[in-house]
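Hey, I was hoping to borrow your eyes for a little while. I'm sending you its amino acid sequence along with the backbone structure tokens. Take your time with it, there's no hurry, and the full record follows here.
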Amino acid sequence: MGLNVDRTLVAVYAVSGLLAGIAGAILAAQFGAWQPNEGVGWELFAISAVVLGARG
């Protein structure tokens, strides 16, 4: 269809990174502190969300 795959891929990764940064800032704002170990232990939740999202 004439889409530039490389440019689209870079744009998708850029938007994904931007939204991840915004989500991190919102998470830190909810807890009222900028702790570097705030998300420790959430890896399993992220992995399960990806697996369930891929199947749905």
The chain is about 70% helix and 0% strand. The CA atoms of residues 26 and 32 lie 10 Å apart.
